[in-house]
Design a protein that fits this description.
By secondary structure, this protein is mostly helical. Helix content is about 60%, strand content about 0%. Helix 4 packs parallel to helix 14 and helix 11 packs across helix 13. The model has no long low-confidence stretch (mean pLDDT about 95). It binds fe (ii) ion (2 copies).
């Protein structure tokens, strides 16, 4: 992955440091970022991108950036400041659901999902989106889908017994069950190629707004901190529980726009797979984890609520921009390459 253009003083500074060999640097000031009205410095776009790049050092790395930066103390200090800001950002937007008794966790997750009344991006994509809008949607999704399942994999060594077996069962499907061509990230690359998009990892990082980056950042935040493991599992459960029907609609929308079976396969695969994953995630994984950790049931629900809220903010962003006849991507020169 290449570093995209900086979006403000945080990323300007971070990218300049990363271009050099690992060294100590005085990190930029702690947040809040972008919360002071009219403050052009340290905006949310800037902070989300800085956090995303800090996390990327734990995934595929960044071209031209020394791998030793991953555990550099100055870098970790900056990352912690960004995470503290992001946790506050989440806390202001996601009301903490009441902590249910352990045995009620699967039911409470289902109720949380059922109560979600965000706008339906999938209904729009099924019946109304044009090809340019569908491509934009896939560009946004590529930021996560090309590393699909990786953030939740951080949870495996943090679990034991039944919840661990359940998480591994889900992840095994996400990674293709031993067949690289069936990996969900690979199926998504076929969707991208079918739409004439660049399927290389991180190709569109510079084009997506903070609302898109936040969706992946929250998973990395939960995955990389053991104390957040309850939220990580709840997040995955909400993901799986809200996947089957939307993916059917995405497939129908792409068929309406002329997408062939290969391009639609990613979505079709998730209609079946996630109907199964939903059950495993809610009962075998979250239910069993809650039984072992009754003090963490509130965290499970909070992780699920974060997933639902960030998805709603993402849908509102796309639909709002499209309603105005604008692109949902960042309005930079590079936009031309997607349209
Ligand atoms: Fe998947
Ligand atoms: Fe799944």
């Amino acid at each position: 992955m290449q570093l995209p253009a900086p979006r403000g003083p945080l990323t300007e500074r971070l990218f300049a440091e990363l271009a050099r060999p690992p060294h100590a640097f005085g990190p930029p000031p702690a947040g809040p970022y972008g919360d002071r009205r009219g403050d052009p410095c340290f905006g949310e776009e800037d902070a989300q991108l800085a956090l995303f790049v800090c996390y990327e050092l734990h995934y595929q790395g960044v071209d031209g950036v020394d791998d030793r930066w991953e555990w550099n103390p100055s870098l970790l200090t900056l990352r912690e400041r960004l995470e503290t800001w992001f946790e506050g950002w989440l806390a202001r937007r996601v009301p903490r659901p009441p902590a249910p008794p352990s045995r009620e966790v699967p039911r409470a997750l289902a109720a949380l999902v059922a109560a979600d009344d965000g706008p339906s991006l999938s209904a729009y994509l099924r019946s109304r989106a044009n090809t340019a809008q569908f491509r934009e949607f896939v560009v946004h999704r590529s930021i996560y889908q090309l590393k699909e399942a990786d953030p939740h994999t951080w949870g495996i060594p943090r679990l034991l017994g039944r919840p661990k077996a359940a998480l591994v069962e889900i992840q095994s499907d996400e990674y293709g069950g031993g067949r690289p061509e069936r990996m969900h990230a690979e199926l998504f690359r076929a969707t991208m190629r079918g739409l004439g998009l660049d399927d290389s990892y991180g190709a569109y990082l510079g084009l997506v707004p903070g609302a898109t980056l936040a969706i992946t950042n929250v998973m990395s935040l939960f995955g990389l901190h053991r104390r957040r493991r309850g939220a990580l599992l709840g997040h995955l459960a909400a993901f799986e529980m809200t996947s089957s029907l939307p993916n059917r609609r995405y497939s129908q929308g792409l068929r309406r726009l002329g997408g062939d079976a290969g391009a639609r396969r990613y979505f079709d695969e998730h209609v079946q797979a996630d109907a199964v994953h939903e059950q495993i995630a809610a009962h075998d994984m979250c239910g069993a984890f809650a039984a072992e950790h009754p003090g963490l049931t509130g965290d499970i629900l909070y992780g699920a609520a974060c997933a639902l809220t960030l998805d709603r903010l993402f849908a509102e962003h796309l639909l709002g921009r499209w309603r105005e006849g604008r692109t949902s991507l960042r309005e930079t020169d590079a936009e031309v390459t997607v349209r």
